[in-house]
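From the thread on structure requests for the teaching lab: each student submitted one protein with a one-line request. Submission from student K.M.:

"Model Cupin-like domain-containing protein from Stakelama saccharophila, tokens only."
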Amino acid sequence: MAEADPGIFRSIPAVRERQIADVAQLDAVLREAGEPFVVRGLVSDWPLVAAGKQSPRAARRYLLDHARAMKFTVSAGAPGTDGRMFYDAAMGMNFRTLQAPLPEIFARIDAQEGRADAHPIYLASIDMHRFFSGLAEENRVDLGERKSLDGIWIGTPTRIAAHNDFPDNLACVAVGRRRFTLFPPDQFRNLYLGPIDNTPAGRAISMVDFHNPDFERFPKFREALDHALVAEMEPGDALHIPSMWWHHVEGLSSFNVLVNYWWRDTPRWLGQPQNALNLALMAIRDLPQAEKEHWRDLFDHYVFRNRPEDVEHIPEDARSVLAPLTPESAERIRGFLLRQLNQ
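Reply posted by the TA:
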């Protein structure tokens, strides 16, 4: 896979590195971090890292030793795409999504290793506990009391367009090298996002090709680069990506494995903000401007300001969803919305 033009990325500053001595310090740093940071060698003692340092095939054998007899979802791209998993000319996907047992997938990787016409192969966000036995336990970061979703990302050289995630993320490079290019949340205006419903993996992505940016078509991308950070990652390194930070991810080696942990500091029963945005696009965006302004005021009043004095005129035991939410009241809202949407 071709490296990004150093003339464009040479001046991007590196993500800050932190030294972590123990679980308590990692917990403290994660709690106060508002920007990404790298911890070199955080997971260098993992058996998976050791296998990968032997060879890509040794890493694949180690993974197969732990894989359950299940079909894995895998994306297969076309040769000549520089590993870029993206849209095609018709805004469909330039890759096929298939299901196959892991031994078959790895046999395909073995067969095309080193070939110029190799197909990019990518397994994204595979649940480590569901699809592997003992892998998560042998290769683990202690995150204290955080309840994380543990995923593994496996593939040949690939480029994943800049996107963001709602949960916080600790991304640990186990095999191969990776490059992350990161942008603060407010840079979405300069990243030229694509559709929010037709996406390669559920999140809106930047339409800019980071290896060959078209500054005539995407002139504001220059400003995004002024705010960018880059992390060049080796096996054993870990990167914390705070919630909503945009990140472009490149797998730079012939075989790449990343383990990541997602968590959120708010309860999961609060729901996904993206769902609220999708519903607002359907119900509010195309209203007359005066009505949109009214709904903007209501959102500001009830959601963004959310001041205690705004509901003091309602008896405390009668405030319903205007009171602080609980799992029970959140479930009532969810049921109410489902009934309304199905009418």
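TA comment: The chain has two domains: 6-265, 269-341. Residues 6-265 form a domain with the Jelly Rolls fold (CATH 2.60.120.10).
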